[in-house]
Queue: 2 jobs
Job 1
Amino acid sequence: MILLTATDLVRQFDVEPVLNRATFDIRSGDRIGLVGPIGAGKTTLLRILAGLDHADSGQIQLATSADVVLLEQHPDFAAGRTLIEEAREGLATIFALQREADEIVHAMAKQDQPDELGRLHKRYDFVQHELQRLEGFHVDHRIDEVLQGLGFNKSQYDQPLATLSGGQQNRVLLARMLLRAPDLMLLDEPTNHLDIAATQWLEQFLVDSGRAMIVVSHDRYFLDRVCTRILEQHRGKLTDYPGNFSKYWQLRGERQAVAQKTFEKQQEYIEKTEEYIRKNKFGQLSKQAKDREQKLARVEVVDTIADIAGPTMSFADPTRTGDWVIDADSLTKGFVSGKPLFSNVTLQVKRGERWGILGPNGAGKTTLLRTLLGELKPDSGRVRFGTGVNVAYFDQQLSSVDPEMDAMEAVRPPDVAKYTDGQLRDHLAKFGIKGELALQQVGAMSGGERSKVALARIAALEPNVLVLDEPTNHLDLWSRDSLEQALKEFDGTLMFVSHDRYFLDRVATHVLVVEPGHWACYDGNYSDYVLFLKNRDAELKAAAERSPASSKGPASDDRRSSREPRRKRKFPYRKVEEIEAEIAATEATVAECEANLVDPAFHRDAARMKANMSLYESSKETLTKLYEHWEEAVELN
């Protein structure tokens, strides 16, 4: 089924339109990745599809009653609202139907007019059908699944939204949209503010949802796992590619090569034909020349595929350090309240190694970097630098570049005589800051431009050790590719924090995982780390199957100690199977009561009708508690 058809969309703000006769359609279940360089107009397109902006010309046809929703980027919550209240807003339609169903039941209990009773029966059947279609009988479980998948815990449910961080508020907007489950989801950078675990959960949720979606993202792993189709937006043109991001990257290169070869052959043919016409236009072969001239006039020039080139980033050849660069022994760091963010971190980074640091939000990754650099004093332990170490630090707040300066002055190294203005311009151009942009004040730049200026600054310092905190934030796909290539070619030593799994895969030679109360080092890149976990889990499972009793012993408790503490029981211990049996029996009772409510003969006996209503309401309350008991038993048994 076609949900949306866009025909000949045109939208223009400047000389070059962001949409130039763009035509495409979206079908049920399509998972489309929308890619293109920064400034291509991807957000503008999403806003037009959501009805929040308009095209200068063209047409959008939407299927009848199709629900299209754009993920908001700027939270604007009602005053005093809590996390759980905002999440439940995504299920407002279901809650309204539930209230209506209860009102109809009460109305039927009091009604003795056959015609009105028949009308109520029909409406009740419709409402029940809608609740079943919308999966409206397990809403609390759905809310828990989404909120906890996005990194919230139950202790935060009643927390006022105003007390949440900006990143948490953006996750609430995403949760509300996922719970609403519109026919077409327009997701603009949905993985912003998500750590790797939450991103992986979101990937699976979107794949399982069956909903149509357009996703704008710079997370290449995410685009690979979620998308089945890619739309590229570039210079006003939309080009459709089948498959995920990796397939798009491959097909684009192949199409570009074929188009270029075809163009060159056509140009060769045109040049030879024009030469033939010039030589023979007035001679004995003028008739043939005229014929070729007519044929040439009908030739449609083949279009090449415009290249989307990232900046040519590079770092200077570093001076040599000693064999080891950073040596940390038993580092522990915390703050005034709560447990330490990390404790007893011991590692040695050797010359030429590239260490990627990953872990959930709030685990202390940035604090660890700053402690290793000496910007923060550890609570215990020590850090030493090796011989000849010259460190340059890229912090994710970009505080290394003065927002009051223009780009050239912000990048200029302390040794001002080392770079002329021309050399500074050339240096900035390597990082994508060209022309008048090099003279623009840093504070007036976009996030991506400021990131490039900060990268250019640390490159100008010519360090032999790079320490980068989320360097790919704000960079588009092509700039990330350029940075990855530059870091792989850098002969110095590298430590970096990143949530970008693709970046971790391409750059890291070692992985340091920092989690609450736990840390561990692994050789290899992100894929090697994932493979290690998979093999370890398989070995633990096999060991548990060989010796069931041992899995309940101390080793099991040790593994549990590195996770969050188990929540206390709300209900007494019961086997899951027993609860499931009682749920089935109670659901049967509710179904029987509902059948009685729509039986005209039943309404003639007021006493039976009253008893039936009482049983119906008490069974529904019992069912709600049983669902909670079942969830607790599944988690804690």
Job 2
Amino acid sequence: MQLNWKKIVQYGLITGAAIVFVSLVGMLEAFDARDVIFNVLSLGRALIVVIGLGMGYVVALRTARGKAVPALVGGFVSGAVGGAVASLLVVLMTTWDGMRDMFINASPGLMKILTFSQDSLAIGMLYLIGTIAVLSLIGAAIQLLPNTPRRMIIAGLGAVLLIGMLQELLNVMMGRFGTGKSLARFLFGRKGLSAYGAISVFIVFSLLNGLWGTQSQHAKNRVNQLPASQRTTFNWMLIIVGIILLFFLPQIVGPYISQILVLVGLYTLMGLGLNIDIGLAGLLDLGFVGFFAIGAYTAALLTSTADLGLSNVINGQSGASYTSFWVAIPISVLVAAIFGVFLGIPVLRMRGDYLAIVTLGFAEIIRILVLSNFLQPYLGGAQGILNIPKPELGYVGTVEQMLPASVRTYLFPFASPEGIIKDPQHFYYLIIFGCVLIGFVAWRLQNSRIGRNWMALREDEDVAEAMGINLIAAKLMAFGTGAAFAGFSGAIFAAQVGSVFPHSFGLIVSINVVSLVIIGGSGSIPGVIVGALVLVGLPELLREFSEFRMLIYGALLIVMMLVKPEGFWPSEVRRRELHEGSEPIIVPEEPAVVAGQSA
């Protein structure tokens, strides 16, 4: 039996360092107040469980090559080394008087967690070393399992952890319905999942994952074998079911999740635009938030009833709206597209990092101009533009007044009884309509001659130009189209918030949009949607974890990029590019030479 002791010890040191890190930044003690499983497993101790299991899995995967004994021994030894490193933190906390002065989170509460509330320090340290070693051993054993049971166990454990973390939010959502209340009482304790609830969640999600893993391909084959007419009918049934689910989703999830979905939708609209620049045309644009700001300010100026609104400027009548939201939308899109073309003109010959720097400068120029005293009389400066009215649907208010109150919510969930789009649930439908419209336009462009020109431009500008593609027209079209989508998103943002301020258009917005395109899968329209859900929706769901939510989010992003560098839902071209050379090349055999013939 040959073991790579060097790697095993290295992974053990990483395990210990991870536990020390989450301890000293305060995560362990702060999360210990929350239970994943009520009175069984706190969220703080769940962090230790995740680190131990995960590193044991990695040790078996990287060092044992599927061999049982090296994997189990390596996992156990690595965990023991990690536990020993974590126990050194306990020793330092008890022997070094200045430890608390340097690390404020090195508190007695943390000591109690690490030593499992043992009175004897030595016994507590042995508990810590043994626990992490056993967890790492279990993680190694999970890695040795066949693919289907391994995925089932991981899915079940992940579901228990996620549902236990989101217990408060899920309780509120399920409490909106009678059946949901009964299910919530069974699943949840006072804090986190109940013991029976945790077992049930583990079994259900494990079985669902196993069923999907074993039957999904069979189901796909059966659908593909259907006659064309039946396959079309089946696809339309799925589309109808999806539309019904999207229609009633705000009523199911409530206002908080609806607000998160609105934010996800706004970033999806921007992502669809930037996906044209980066994913299709290969133009690295880091100043995309500038077009978002232009769309928002254009809509704000056109519709605001404050002093800066055009109604007051043109007619001298404060408190009135110069035009409606529905007229401001196409104007905002047009203005943003014009600015996109203007940006594209001076950067036509720039590529890569140089283009990124120029576009970044463009976004900063927009932000500084909006903040400047020079444009303050027109754009409000740091005080922004206020009193932006909500979109109105006049005919809806008229029709709703003719219907019973019990029917209005179900027939017209996208507006108030007065016909105003004002709540998150109302803006959800506007965002969904916008995403469908922009997604359809992006899909048609991607599969058109223009889209093929963009993809050729992304691969090699010189070759594309040699093939007769007009680089100037293609680049300007990409910049203008992407900017138009961002302007559309900005106009909806202005109406939804009711005011616009310069601080809403910082560099972090551009970085988030670029990240969601890459994380979802560059060049993929479904990837943009998935990327927005992960990049924007996940931090909002983790908001209850206060200052640690972005730390958790960053760690998850690192893991995701290591596991799936091509993104969650990449285009086929992107997947082939990143996995080129990872699959064996099959060389066709030379045809046999028959006597008297040349094969």
